[in-house]
Write a structure and sequence with these properties.
Blueprint: H1 11-26, H2 31-46, H3 75-78, H4 82-99
């Protein structure tokens, strides 16, 4: 199987890669780079192709990228003092109030 061959990937994995690539392209990433990142993400999630003979077949995928949102951040604010967090909260509230008129709702 030559490098880059997608024959061992399921239809679902291909759809997933397409969807991820579209998201990158919407954010201004080139088509080629978006495709590369999308397949890297699918590989990370599924450990390779799930079809027979693929390296990801039969492997449990415990923590895919799609479920990591919100778990990565938060550490920095936890280490800051209450006064610092409070100041940030006040600043954020002021910004939201100032930007209220620009809302897209």
């Amino acid at each position: 199987m030559p490098r880059g061959d997608k024959s061992k990937y399921t239809g679902k994995q291909e759809r997933k890669a397409d969807h991820i690539a579209e998201g990158y392209e919407k954010r201004g990433v080139s088509e080629k780079e978006a495709e590369r990142r999308a397949w890297a993400t699918v590989n990370k999630d599924d450990a390779g192709g799930k079809e027979e003979g693929g390296s990801g077949r039969g492997k449990h995928t415990g923590n895919p990228a799609a479920h990591k949102g919100g778990r990565m951040g938060g550490k920095a604010s936890g280490e800051r003092s209450a006064a610092d967090r409070s100041a940030s909260a006040r600043k954020a509230a002021a910004t939201r109030k100032r930007n209220e008129s620009h809302a897209h709702h």
